[in-house]
Structures are given as C-alpha cells and as structure tokens.
Amino acid sequence: MINPIIEVKGLRTSFLTDDGEIPVVNDIDFHIKPGEVLGIVGESGCGKSVTSLSIMGLLDSRTGKVDGEILFNGENLANASEAKMRKIRGNEIAMIFQEPMTSLNPVFTIGDQLIESLRIHRKWDKKKARVKAVEMLQLVGLARAKELLNEYPHQLSGGMRQRVMIAMAMICEPKMLIADEPTTALDVTIQAQILELMKKLNKETNTAIMMITHDLGVVAEMCERIVVMYAGKIVEEGDVKSIFQNPKHPYTVGLIQSVPDMREKKERLYSIPGNVPKPGSLKIGCQFAPRCPHAMDICISQTPSLTPFENGQQVRCWLYEDQKGADKHDRAIGQS
To answer: Quick one: fold of 6-223?
Structure first.
C-alpha cells in the first residue's frame, strides 16, 4: 500500500468580510499518491483554485482563514510558518498558474526567473544553475534554450511562456505539482503539446499532479481519479472510467452532458440551468438542490454526506443514501 504524498482532511477555507467569515471551501477530504494524477473539476467559483492556494499557503492571512489538515509527507501545512512554506514552495510542491503572462515577472529575464529557485533552495552558483535552466528549457521542448535565457516574457508566445512556467515549476524536481488550468487560452495544438509534456514529466519523474480544470476532455486525457467540486464541497469522487461511464451525482451528469459530442448533431448544447450559489448563501441542505431536476424536500432541509460505493466512488446525494434510493436515482438519470 503506497502512502499518499499529500492528504487533505476537513479543509475549510473562509474569507473574512464585513459580514463575517464566508466559507469558500467547506470541509473537503482527498489524497494524492506519488506519481498519481488527480483531477479537480467543477464550474468557475466552485473552490478549485482556492483549494490549491490553501495548500500552497498563498492566501493572505488578513483576509483568508484556513482550517483543517493539509498533511504533506506527514507534516501539517495548514499551520506551518511562512518560513517553512518558503522552503516547500517551488522546491517540494510547485504550481503552474492559469495565466503565464501575469505569473512571470515582466522586468526579469527568463533565465533570472528560472535559476532563482535553484539558487534559493539548492544554493547553487549562477553558472551551475544556468546549465540546469538550459536543460529544463530543452526538456519542455523549447528551441534556442540558451538564447531564451536572456529574453523577457513579452518576447515569447503564449505557448512558450506556458512551457517556461512548467520548466520553472519542475526545475527543483518537486514531489508534487499543482496545475491550475494549465492550458487556458492556448490553442488546441499547443494545448495538446502541453498535456503531452506534462504526462511525459509525470512518468519520468514520478511527480504527483493535482490538475485543476473545468475541461473534462483534459481530465479524460490526463487523470486517473476525479474529484468533482460544487459550491465549495466535494459532490463526487472516483476513478476516471467509473465516473465517465456511470456518473452518479446530478451535477456530474450535467457536466458530462454539456460536453459537445462530435458524433451527434444538436441545435443547442446542453447547459445546467441556474447559477452557482453565492458563497455562504445556503446554510443547510444540498448546495445543488436549487438547480437539480431530481430535488426532494429533504434536499432543501438537510445536508447529505458522502456515500461510498464498492467500486470506490463516493457521491454526496440523498438519492444514494441507501440501495433503494440508488436504484431510483439511476432510473431517474436514465430518463433525463
């Protein structure tokens, strides 16, 4: 049995406002094993990125509050000091952000930004670090690696900048990589190249990857397990094959139905009716109930817990509280 490299237990992240604490991530649990690729999926505003920022310790303590446990190699990062997190960030846990143009510093060269981690974490001299930087740029498929070290972010295309971000994240050979929408705003060809590159690095270095995305095509291509989030909670979890072939939560069903199918000609694409609720607006009940076609009275008045299944899937839905309810829900899903 391989021990998880990271284990999140009861994570609750709130923002401090004039109206009090507003929970954005609400009591979630998941784990990632070494070399595993876990997909975190859901609509914008469901808490995916806040979860990653909580793990990295990048939320401002004046406006954000993190409770629960984030166990990385047995150490709880939720209450780790800033000095400790500086040693971990970019070294043992690295992150690829959504927009490389705003993540890269425009006034420093690519080389300066690449070698910074090596000089801080490994204490390498500049010459040795530059050699490693060239190797990493070549590894991520960038030509003219030596020349690129002296160029600035604005001189590179979007795809090149994203490759630089991956090289920067991987340069210290981290044990875990968090990829937050790594292919957003890239054209399809470059997106395929970036995903192929990440799969290659994952296999060669055994780096665990937490892939945050709303693109189910990316999940099918990259991930082994999926965590589906809605309004700050995990509503379904399981391996990729089980969830794509037999999604159980109505929200997961809606996400999969909204993916265009080239084999079918439709006048309109499916979309889940309604909007994600404002954080903290629903105190009790299922957060998805106002948008769910199968909602019952209990869904409004009581909050469901995660129900486990024999195949490892878990679902947060009142219709799966017992096997009779599961049969009823499966029939309802099949008819919708």
So the answer is: Rossmann fold (3.40.50)
Helical spans, DSSP H, in the chain:
48-56, 82-88, 100-103, 110-117, 126-139, 145-148, 158-170, 188-205, 216-222, 240-245, 250-257, 297-301, 323-335
What pLDDT is attached to residue 188?
A: 81
Angstrom distance (rounded) from CA 41 to CA 38: 10
User: What would the two tokens of residue 101 be?
Assistant: 């143009």
pLDDT at 330: 55
Tell me how far apart the alpha carbons of residues 24 and 89 are, in angstroms, rounded to a whole number: 23
Q: How far is CA 173 from the centre of its chain?
A: 19
Cα–Cα distance for residue pair 320/78, rounded to 1 Å: 32
- In the chain, which residues have pLDDT < 70? 100-101, 185, 322-336
Q: Tokens standing for 217? A: 């095509």
Helix (H, G, I), strand (E, B) or coil at 307: strand
DSSP state of 89: B
* CB count in 10 Å sphere of residue 56: 19
Only one residue has tokens 């425009």, namely 106
Burial class (CB in 10 A: 0-12, 13-18, 19+), 282: middle
| Ranges of each domain in the chain | 6-223, 247-335
